[in-house]
Request: fold
Amino acid sequence: MTDLYQQTIVDHARRPRNFGPLPGANRSAEGTNPLCGDELILRLRLGDRIEAVAFEGAGCAVCLASASMMTLAVKDCSASEAARLMQRVRELVAGGNGANLGELESLKGVARYPARRKCALLAWRALEAALAGETTKVSTEL
Ligand code: ZN
Reply:
């Protein structure tokens, strides 16, 4: 498993970016990955674009790193741009090449560990729910 914990993942997991509450948030979604115990809440301030994004929660290194990198990647994206990025990350952790995804490419190693894909995708599932205005908690097991 050691190659999962590359330097980028370790760095984001230790010092998650945009971690904390988000004043003025107008969208939020909770996500849970019961297989690993990852839990997070994602908050957005959404106008024409994602003006601000932050998350709080507890999870494994892959979950926290993916959430941290996601907040950096989707800020200032429109909802449709964020949806396209989400699709590319899904392909990456399923074994796709993920070219031009920047730091998110560090999640590539997860493709070899199917159980960890859910850790990597939890924040993205929550993003999808928040953008859709869903209020039910999203689970990787549903
Ligand atoms: Zn996890």
